């Protein structure tokens, strides 16, 4: 709040204004949602910016990172974060729903895709239809709301989610079969009007060389980076430059070694709920580890039977 009573929202640099009450956009407005999430809307009710798009996966709204799993019976379970560490990081799981069969729902992702500050599930079915199951902030079978179709034809992509263009909204990132990396920017709408026209952020990302791609702010500059797992067992960090388009990603640095294929599945998440994302690894024998600094901490065992959504 400025001395003249003008309320101004700034970018992470602290100097570039995003919106103010003296805006030149007629009838735009700001809403402070539950959990302190501030969302800016235009006159049509489309979100222009939100403070919640980079929130950690937190389904019950307690501020700690939760882990979603799917078992072989198609049941969805949530392991709530506790704020603890090591094997005390996650609490007792609770049931969130059934009917999530692997042969029907081929991919599940966690993201705040509707930018309301609640963590959602984004699910792709075997036909390539992409659905948003909005988070409600509640628990149990009320964790997720009714599904909303986002689009069709998504079987051609490996998907990820994050704010790649720095506008405060969660975008969809897709790697196609030719190794091209595309961003479908969120344009503030809902349903099939959620995403705008795609733009390229790189080529040469073929799955034969880059087995896994994760998207998170790993260098704490408030931009979504790419954590890439190469077939030589190394993890590379591609920082987001904020420049957009083919200049979105900067030169990589090696941030991990000995992440051998078929031995480890890497993730990028704030599993210890300290506000900064880190590397998380699941071994082929079902051990879940959190990598913080130069240390790693065992979170739990027996995860081999689950699809982990983190």
Describe this structure in words.
This protein has 310 residues and is mainly beta. It has no helices and 25 strands. The protein is globular and about 60 Å long. The two termini are 36 Å apart. Keywords: Signal. This is FG-GAP-like repeat-containing protein. Residues 1-91 form the Bulb-type lectin domain. It comes from Streptomyces toxytricini (Actinomyces toxytricini).
The helicity comes to under 10%
Distance between the ends? 36 Å
Class per helix and strand makeup: mainly beta
Range of strand content: 35-45%
Report the mean per-residue pLDDT as an integer.
Answer: 90
Question: What is the 3D form?
Answer: globular
The total of helices stands at 0
Radius of gyration over C-alpha positions, nearest whole angstrom: 19 Å
Order of strands in the sheet with most strands: 8-7-6-25
Low-confidence stretches: none
The main sheet comes to: 4 strands, antiparallel
Order of helices and strands: EEEEEEEEEEEEEEEEEEEEEEEEE
Number of strands: 25
Protein name: FG-GAP-like repeat-containing protein
Pfam families: FG-GAP_3 (PF13517)
Organism: Streptomyces toxytricini
Keywords: Signal
Would you kindly provide a brief summary of this structure?
This protein has 310 residues and is mainly beta. It is 0% helix and 38% strand. Residues 1-91 form the Bulb-type lectin domain.
Which key terms come to mind for this protein?
310 residues, mainly beta, four-stranded antiparallel sheet, 25 strands, signal, FG-GAP, Bulb-type_lectin_dom, FG-GAP-like repeat-containing protein
């Amino acid at each position: 709040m400025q001395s003249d009573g003008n309320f101004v929202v700034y970018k992470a640099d602290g100097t570039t204004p995003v919106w103010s009450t003296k805006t030149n956009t007629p009838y735009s407005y700001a809403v402070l949602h539950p959990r302190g999430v501030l969302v800016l809307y235009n006159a049509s009710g489309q979100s222009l910016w939100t403070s919640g798009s980079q929130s950690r996966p937190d389904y019950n709204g307690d501020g700690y990172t939760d882990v979603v799993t799917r078992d072989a019976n198609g049941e969805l379970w949530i392991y709530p974060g506790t704020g603890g560490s090591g094997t005390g990081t996650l609490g007792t799981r609770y049931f969130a729903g059934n009917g999530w069969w692997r042969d029907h729902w081929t991919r599940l992702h966690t993201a705040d895709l509707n930018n309301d500050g609640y963590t959602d599930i984004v699910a792709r079915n075997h036909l390539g239809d992409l659905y948003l199951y909005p988070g409600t902030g509640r628990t149990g079978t009320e964790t997720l709301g009714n599904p909303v179709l986002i689009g069709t034809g998504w079987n051609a992509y490996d998907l990820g989610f994050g704010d790649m263009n720095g506008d405060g909204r969660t975008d969809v990132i897709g790697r196609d079969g030719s190794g091209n990396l595309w961003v479908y920017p969120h344009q503030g709408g809902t349903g099939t009007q959620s995403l705008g026209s795609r733009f390229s952020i790189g080529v040469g990302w073929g799955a034969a060389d880059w087995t896994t791609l994760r998207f998170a702010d790993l260098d704490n500059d408030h931009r979504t980076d790419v954590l890439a797992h190469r077939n030589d067992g190394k993890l590379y960090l591609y920082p987001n430059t904020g420049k957009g388009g083919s200049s979105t990603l900067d030169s990589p640095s090696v941030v991990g070694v000995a992440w051998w294929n078929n031995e480890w599945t890497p993730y990028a998440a704030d599993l210890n709920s300290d506000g900064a994302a880190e590397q998380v690894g699941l071994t082929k024998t079902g051990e879940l580890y959190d990598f913080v600094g130069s240390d790693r901490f065992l979170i739990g065992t027996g995860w081999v039977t689950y699809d982990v959504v983190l």
